[in-house]
């Protein structure tokens, strides 16, 4: 099996041959861009030499009753996605990555997950694509579910190679591929606070929501809220970018100190309006992109308590900016968290799907640039992109009732202002947008029911049942 890293031309192509389970286990973090803890990973192989292709990751389901249907869905998804991007896989490699919970030894973890590995092998085999190798990685060791020979695959497992000591590590360093810690570490910078400061932030969100609900349901007030939100967001971006530099590990803490609870609440609630969020998505390149990414990350951490669902907007924006700036691993982590916060959030669903399918973000960047140029009175570059962006119609809704805000002042999801025509690569227009409820009304109490004490009031479409991350194409 080999991994080709494409750079500037044929003479720059590097080929790395992996000959053993040990080398496969060592290669996994470089294939994903992080250490995928508590994850099920599937990698497609193509051709007689086993060229790496599409990669798919999912958190290991806690309920063993879900393993068989999850396995069937993931096998179908990986094979179908590989056929769209490249060709039907000739084989698949499976990784189950999970450290033992308290009271369990690593070999016991391996045996507990064995039925999941077998379900994946059966599901792939049913689609005529064999599982070439299935590895369990736990507590710094690896086990093979496919090798019965105790001489090379003992019951106590084999230790993983020391970081940076393998041919894959050397090739990755040469190619500039970085492994940024574990998936848990990457998610930590995007998850809501669980500190004493969370109570103050929740109070600020309650107070801001009580004021903004009435304003957002009025057409003139809604436009003013949108303008105020974008102005404040821009001011916060400038503040973050203008602060003295600190070590990379301290950036999040420094950014948190620079944003007040009231400021964070105002922008978080303002971003629940789709038009405002789309305007904010235009900050996706250069200095704007770097500042916006830090702001969206900081706001996602402020969506505390019953406002966790509101984090879907800043998380989706963080995923979009990361993808636009070429960081697909960070984009998938942020978009997966957005869908975890709100599985019905259409913006995150579409970005997640596009990123997983290996589409070029330049198509959407061009669309957003066109929006900005039309709004500013400039000309639009109608050069055809790499493909149309299509927005599926919302599916049937379940759960809380939705409330429509006024239709005045709306514009298409991804297109120019009304009556000026839509660029070919832009998504089709919708008749009317929706806005999420902004908070709990005064005196409503904590409201931590099935809908988090809020009235969600924007349209959406439910995604796949299990919501796996497709980690793209391995080349």
Search tags:
475 residues, alpha+beta, seven-stranded mixed sheet, two-stranded antiparallel ribbon, elongated, disordered N terminus
Task: Walk me through this protein's architecture.
The chain has 15 helices and nine strands. It is an alpha+beta fold and 475 residues long. The strands form two sheets. A seven-stranded mixed β-sheet has the order 8-7-6-5-3-4-9, with helices on both faces. Strands 1-2 form a two-stranded antiparallel sheet. A hairpin with a 2-residue loop joins β6 and β7 (141-144). α2 (67-85) crosses α3 and α6 runs antiparallel to α7. It is elongated. It starts with a strand and ends with a strand.
In short:
The chain is of the alpha+beta class and 475 residues long. The chain has helices at residues 21-32, 67-85, 106-126, 167-175, 183-188, 197-216, 219-242, 251-258, 261-270, 274-280, 286-301, 312-324, 328-341, 346-356, 362-375, and strands at 2-5, 14-17, 39-46, 51-59, 91-97, 131-138, 141-144, 158-159, 469-473.
């Amino acid at each position: 099996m080999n991994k080709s890293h494409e750079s500037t031309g044929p003479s720059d192509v590097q080929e790395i041959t992996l000959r053993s389970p040990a080398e496969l286990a060592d290669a996994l973090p470089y294939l994903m861009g992080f250490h995928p803890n508590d994850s099920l990973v599937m990698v497609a192989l193509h051709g007689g030499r086993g060229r790496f292709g599409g990669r798919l990751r999912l958190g290991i389901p806690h309920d063993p009753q879900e393993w068989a249907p999850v396995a069937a869905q993931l096998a179908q998804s990986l094979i179908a996605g590989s056929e769209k991007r490249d060709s039907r896989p000739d084989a698949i490699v499976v990784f189950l990555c999970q450290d033992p919970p308290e009271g369990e030894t690593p070999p016991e973890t391996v045996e507990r997950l064995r039925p999941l590995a077998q379900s994946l092998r059966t599901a792939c085999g049913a689609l005529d694509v064999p599982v070439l190798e299935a590895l369990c990685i736990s507590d710094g060791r690896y086990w093979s579910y496919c090798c019965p020979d105790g001489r090379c695959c003992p019951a106590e497992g084999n230790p993983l190679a020391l970081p940076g000591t393998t041919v894959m590590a050397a090739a990755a360093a040469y190619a500039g591929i970085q492994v940024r810690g574990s998936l848990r570490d990457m998610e930590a910078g995007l998850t809501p606070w669980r500190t004493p400061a969370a109570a103050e932030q929740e109070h600020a969100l309650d107070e801001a929501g009580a004021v903004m609900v009435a304003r957002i349901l009025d057409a003139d007030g809604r436009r003013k809220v949108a303008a105020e939100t974008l102005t404040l967001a821009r001011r916060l971006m400038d503040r973050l970018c203008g602060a003295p530099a600190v070590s990379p590990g301290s950036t999040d803490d420094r950014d948190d100190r620079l944003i007040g609870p009231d400021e964070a609440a105002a922008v978080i609630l303002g971003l629940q309006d789709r038009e405002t969020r789309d305007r904010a998505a235009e900050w996706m390149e250069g200095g704007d992109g770097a500042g916006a990414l830090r702001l969206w990350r900081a706001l996602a951490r402020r969506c505390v308590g019953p406002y966790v669902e509101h984090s879907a907007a800043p998380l989706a924006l963080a995923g979009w900016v990361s993808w636009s700036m070429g960081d697909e691993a960070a984009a998938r982590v942020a978009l997966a968290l957005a869908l975890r916060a709100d599985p019905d959030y259409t913006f995150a669903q579409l970005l997640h799907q596009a990123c997983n399918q290996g589409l070029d973000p330049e198509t959407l960047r061009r669309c957003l640039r066109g929006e900005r140029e039309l709004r500013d009175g400039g000309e639009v570059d109608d050069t055809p992109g790499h493909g149309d962006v299509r927005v599926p119609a919302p599916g049937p809704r379940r759960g809380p009732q939705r409330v429509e805000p006024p239709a005045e002042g709306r514009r298409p999801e991804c297109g120019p202002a009304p009556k000026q025509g839509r660029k070919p690569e832009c998504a089709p227009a919708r008749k009317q947008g929706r806005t999420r409820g902004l908070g709990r009304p005064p005196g409503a109490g904590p409201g931590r029911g099935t809908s988090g004490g809020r009235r969600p009031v924007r349209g959406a479409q439910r995604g796949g049942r299990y919501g796996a991350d497709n980690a793209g194409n391995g080349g």
